[in-house]
Amino acid sequence: MKILIYGINFAPELTGIGKYSGEMAQWLAKAGHEVRVITAPPYYPAWKVGAGHSALHYRSETWEGVRVIRTPLWVPRKPGGVKRLLHLASFALSSLPALLAQWRWKPEVVWVVEPPLMCAPAAAAFAALRGAGSWLHIQDYEVDAAFDLGLIKGRALRRCVEWAERALMRRFDRVSTISGRMVDRALSKGVPPRRLVHFPNWVDISGITPLTRPSTYRAELGLRPDDVVALYSGNMGNKQGLEVLADVARLLKDEPRIQFVLGGSGSGRADLQARCAGLTNVRFLDLQPMERLNDWLGLADVHLLPQRADAADLVMPSKLTGMLASGRAVLATAQPETELCGVVDSDAACGVVVPPENPVAMAHALRALAADPERRAALGASGRRYAEAELGRDVILRRFEARLQELVRESTALQDRPAPQ
């Protein structure tokens, strides 16, 4: 198959959408498909274009057997409501020439990822005119999240944008998203059930495995053998509710065995560091290289997974897959009825869930987990079993490949159908 992947985030970004789009493209290319990618220069989660890349120029490169076309992009230093919209719009506009340039290549599937939804109109129109199958994959419901998190305001504006979103989603041959609740939301937006696909995030269960020895990070950070590490790793942005971690660390400052390691970057890191000022039980690190990912995730005795209450079921944290594969207990914040709560508390039975934005409850749960190594081990083992059974990369991507082939057959059949007399 000829597959065109269209989205703002891609490898070598280490977290979020870029990580999954890169791994998917690499897998498809190794499976023998011809894959091209239209994307931006890497910038996430630091909100700064990576070294060796340009925000001003077009560039074509070959990565892991995939042709990658990178287009100009405006990256704000401090992303906010209007700035974020302008940022996304800059990619949607600059990527149009790159999309049109694929006309002669004749892709069989145009696969576009949200966010940004701004790229979807051009992707759908291009696919329809070219006779290709169109596929919209939703990692985050950015319209709902933008209004619910207060990044954009206005009831009339929301009604208008939601109407446009619904109309646009119905134009795609396939619409996929990463969790059951997010599939239900797509149904509520009018996507026909036959077009909906549950396409969850995955994990490399052979690359991330439970450590059988202490992580090398313990010695590098000067941690004692009996220290219990509470680890947060990933984007430090608006949807994570990270301020609760500073409050929890302050509540537990007199518990010397509990040490917080917070690794990552993003628009909220400076504020989180300011909130943790003076706390000797907190260490900050940057995102760690992929070649050390297993050792990094294995540093945790407890993985921390905070989430804002108003982000419930708008996103499913992608970092959860690595936590489960690492075989370590998880402490999450989520409302009882959300899918994140269901996965952590029941499906994977990998950890403890407390209400969002409640530092007292989170501190109490962390203190209890720190005092009970046998329970931590049992929760971690349960999460690992769930990852092996449900989240393996090859299993998920083989299923996805079959759905792509099904879509191509449908598109070909429509083109071959005789015109009405």
Features:
421 residues; alpha/beta; Rossmann fold; 2 domains; 6-stranded parallel β-sheet; 16 helices; 14 strands; globular
At a glance:
Helices cover 41% and strands 16% of the residues. The chain starts with a strand and ends in a 5-residue tail after the last helix.
Notes on the protein architecture:
The protein has 421 residues and is of the alpha/beta class. The chain has helices at 16-30, 81-94, 96-100, 120-130, 142-148, 155-169, 180-188, 216-220, 243-251, 269-275, 293-297, 320-325, 339-347, 359-370, 373-390, 393-416, and strands at residues 2-6, 34-39, 59-63, 66-70, 109-114, 133-138, 174-177, 196-198, 228-233, 258-263, 282-285, 302-305, 329-333, 351-354. It folds into two domains: 2-202 and 392-415, Glycogen Phosphorylase B (Rossmann fold, 3-Layer(aba) Sandwich); 216-390, Rossmann fold. α9 packs parallel to α10 and α9 packs across α14 (359-370).
Integer-rounded radius of gyration: 22 Å
Helical residue percent band: 40-55%
The computed structural class is: alpha/beta
For the largest beta-sheet, the strand count, sense and barrel status come to:
8 strands, mixed
